[in-house]
């Protein structure tokens, strides 16, 4: 909720700046703010500065294109197609993926808006608007983010505390909902906490030994959660571990206050494997030890991914995305229905690389758009006529933003719907300056959103449909590599770090598997090894737990080799 409140505050402040500067199409900067807003102050500031630096480079490109295509409609069409293709390619084949689509949306929209302003002001207005679309969100993310967002260290200690409390709850009275939440938290591994650690070190205001202790605590919390979840799922285990919960609760309180425990009273060992493994973790929870496991080398350390220019999927993705944008462009031009230009914005937002992702997110996309559109129309009918000052208008924007942000900051299974809520709400209620009572605008933009969803879905599922099933072997290879490192680890800190990495790799493989299972029947008919993949994922999850429980067991490596041998 705190994350959602801060994101809603950022969107509302962007709208306020847009009202003061009279930025046209104010929905776009509001959407950029919602898309790029980060949880901690450091990442937020970096994202805000970075996106504006990128746009400065792109402005020179836009200026040159406008000079060439001025009074040449065909030239504008070609430029839009080339720019769309370039940004979709960057989104698929480079590390710019989180922001490539937003940048493409802004630049392409600026090009399309060129023919909507007087000829003499074309270049100036297009450049100004493209800059303001990112300058306003960037200012808000840096200035407001530094004021209201927590430090990455505070987020790290809260995440550690959350895992301690979850572990304690699993040892007490686990229920199906708690087990599902524990699975989601466990599969995150160290990914979120590793990012917090990196940003905390970047701030240069925290002591190195404190961050080292918190890094060890993050590893320990993941390992503890894995063991607690395994114990909760074993109904035949009659040994109670509730004597450990007071230690976990007391430590969680300290972490929630932003500190970490140093002199930990070690619980008593009782000679039971699960119990004593947790005791060992708790007794050295924040004691950093030297790590001997070599860090895995990331694939492709450059700006582009290793297969950026060899894998045809990246080019196909760019072509399909460009086709969706251009088809939307031609539809609203041929119909002379300017209000449905939101279909182009939608194309950049909803494109997904595989058919499984497109289908799994289709319901989130449609339901989110319908919820946001309903909020927008109801506010126009019942709220807008009664607004008499800017404060009331901003309160309405804040409430609409909060609903979308709350869903967006939730579990990844529903987060996509949150952005769709914000998309439909902003595009319905933010037209010119101040409150609007124009139902035609809301209707047209909602039609544009639905049209963009339909066109993008049709393009990505009809031409070169990419199946998530084909990506499972690569994810399994990464999972097996993480398991090998965990089994080979010789120290407790190494084992806990590798266990967290294995959970992250296992989560990525499970997500791809889930996407494959929702693809159409004619595609699933060719997935001969789908059941076999499911069994491999289940056995890999068991192996991760057993490696923590009995690291010296001689059959761990044998089990892993057998598991790899049975992989299709």
TrEMBL record:
Residues covered by the Integral membrane bound transporter domain: 328-456
Topology of the protein relative to the lipid bilayer: Multi-pass membrane protein
Location(s), subcellular: Cell membrane
UniProt keyword annotations, A-Z: Cell membrane, Membrane, Transmembrane, Transmembrane helix
Main localization (coarse): membrane
UniProt entry tagged with the keyword S-adenosyl-L-methionine: no
Entry-linked Pfam families: FUSC_2 (PF13515)
Positions of transmembrane segments: 45-66, 72-91, 98-114, 126-149, 362-384, 390-407, 446-465
Family membership: Belongs to the YccS/YhfK family.
Name by which UniProt lists this protein: FUSC family protein
């Amino acid at each position: 909720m705190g994350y959602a409140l801060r994101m809603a505050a950022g969107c509302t402040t962007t709208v306020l700046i847009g009202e003061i500067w009279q930025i046209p199409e104010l929905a776009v900067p509001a959407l950029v703010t919602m898309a790029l807003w980060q949880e901690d102050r450091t990442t937020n500031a970096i994202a805000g500065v970075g996106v504006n630096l990128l746009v400065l480079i792109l402005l020179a490109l836009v200026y040159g294109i406008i000079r060439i295509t001025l009074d040449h409609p065909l030239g504008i069409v070609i430029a839009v197609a080339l720019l769309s293709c370039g940004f979709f390619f960057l989104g698929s084949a480079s590390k710019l993926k989180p922001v490539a689509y937003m940048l493409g949306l802004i630049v392409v929209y600026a090009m399309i808006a060129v023919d909507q302003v007087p000829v003499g002001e074309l270049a100036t207005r297009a450049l100004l608007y493209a800059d303001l679309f990112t300058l306003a969100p960037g200012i808000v993310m840096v200035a407001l983010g530094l004021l209201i967002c927590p430090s990455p260290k505070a987020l790290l200690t809260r995440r550690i505390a959350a895992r301690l409390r979850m572990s304690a709850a699993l040892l007490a009275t686990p229920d199906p909902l708690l087990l599902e939440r524990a699975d989601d938290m466990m599969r995150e591994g160290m990914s979120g906490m590793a990012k917090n650690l990196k940003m905390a070190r970047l701030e240069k205001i925290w002591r190195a030994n404190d961050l080292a202790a918190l890094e060890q605590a993050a590893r320990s919390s993941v390992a503890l959660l894995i063991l607690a979840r395994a114990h909760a799922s074993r109904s035949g285990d009659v040994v109670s571990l509730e004597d450990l919960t007071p230690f976990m609760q007391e430590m969680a309180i300290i972490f929630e206050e932003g500190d970490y425990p140093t002199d930990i009273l070690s619980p008593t060992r009782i000679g039971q494997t699960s119990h004593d493994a947790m005791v060992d973790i708790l007794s050295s929870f924040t004691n950093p030890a030297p790590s001997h496991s070599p860090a895995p080398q990331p694939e492709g350390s450059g700006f582009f991914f290793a297969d950026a220019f060899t894998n045809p999927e990246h080019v196909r993705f760019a072509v399909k995305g460009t086709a969706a944008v251009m088809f939307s462009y031609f539809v609203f031009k041929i119909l002379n229905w300017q209000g449905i230009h939101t279909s182009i914005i939608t194309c950049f937002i909803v494109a997904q690389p595989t058919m499984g992702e497109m289908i799994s997110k289709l319901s989130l996309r449609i339901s989110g758009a319908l919820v946001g559109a309903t909020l927008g129309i109801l506010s126009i009918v019942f709220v807008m006529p009664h607004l008499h000052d800017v404060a009331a208008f901003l309160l309405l924007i804040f409430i609409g933003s909060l609903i979308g942000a709350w869903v967006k900051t939730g579990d990844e299974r529903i987060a996509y719907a949150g952005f769709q809520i914000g998309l439909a709400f902003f595009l319905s209620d933010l037209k010119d300056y101040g409150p609007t009572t124009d139902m035609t605008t809301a209707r047209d933009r909602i039609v544009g959103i639905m049209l963009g969803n339909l066109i993008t879905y049709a393009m990505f599922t009809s031409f070169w449909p990419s199946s998530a099933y084909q990506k499972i072997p690569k994810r399994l290879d990464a999972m097996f590599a993480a398991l090998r490192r965990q089994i080979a680890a010789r120290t407790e800190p190494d084992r806990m770090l590798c266990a967290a990495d294995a959970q992250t790799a296992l989560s990525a493989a499970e997500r791809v598997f889930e996407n494959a299972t929702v693809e159409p029947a004619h595609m699933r008919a060719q997935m001969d090894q789908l059941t076999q993949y499911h069994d491999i994922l289940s056995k890999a999850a068991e192996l991760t737990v057993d490696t923590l429980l009995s690291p010296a067991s001689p059959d761990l490596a044998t089990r892993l080799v057998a598991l790899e041998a049975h992989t299709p």
